[in-house]
């Protein structure tokens, strides 16, 4: 299990519960399987950006709020290097890959929205 996946899963679960939704309701509304939601919440698998966006949309929250929930200092700590976390090359490559995926989805979404608004 990856610490990032566990943390994201815990945060998804906390927001889901705060919204009064069951795993089944979240899965149905996000067009995912209940089994997949369960695995995500337990950190047993990584959430794809596409699934993450669907989940955030159903939960009416942002990706950023899920990633940094209950950790308001994480952004500043990461910026100034005081979080005590070190990354190896493989982790940095994985993060870069995730970031590229995020940017691609954002660009696609912006293009789609501009086409719809025309």
Sum this structure up briefly.
This protein is mainly alpha-helical. The protein has helices at 3-18, 23-30, 34-41, 49-59, 63-67, 74-80, 89-117.
Largest β sheet strand count, sense and barrel closure: none
Overall morphology: globular
Tell me, rounded to a whole number, the average pLDDT.
79
- The count of DSSP E runs of length 2 or more, i.e. the number of strands, is 0
By helix and strand content, what is the structural category?
A: mainly alpha
Strand content: under 5%
Cα-atom Rg, whole angstroms?
15 Å
Distance between the termini: 45 Å
The secondary-structure element order is: HHHHHHH
Pick out the low-confidence regions.
71-85
> Portion of residues in helices?
over 70%
Please report the number of helical segments.
7
């Amino acid at each position: 299990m990856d610490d990032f996946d566990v943390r994201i899963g815990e945060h998804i679960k906390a927001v889901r519960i705060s919204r009064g939704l069951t795993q089944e309701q979240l899965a149905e509304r996000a067009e995912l399987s209940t089994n997949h939601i369960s695995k995500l919440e337990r950190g047993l698998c990584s959430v794809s950006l596409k699934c993450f966006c669907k989940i955030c949309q159903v939960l009416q929250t942002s990706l950023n709020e899920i990633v940094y929930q209950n950790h308001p200092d994480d952004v500043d700590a990461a910026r100034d290097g005081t979080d005590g976390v070190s990354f190896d090359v493989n982790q940095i490559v994985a993060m870069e890959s995730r970031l590229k995926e995020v940017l691609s989805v954002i660009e696609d979404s912006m293009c789609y929205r501009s086409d719809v608004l025309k």
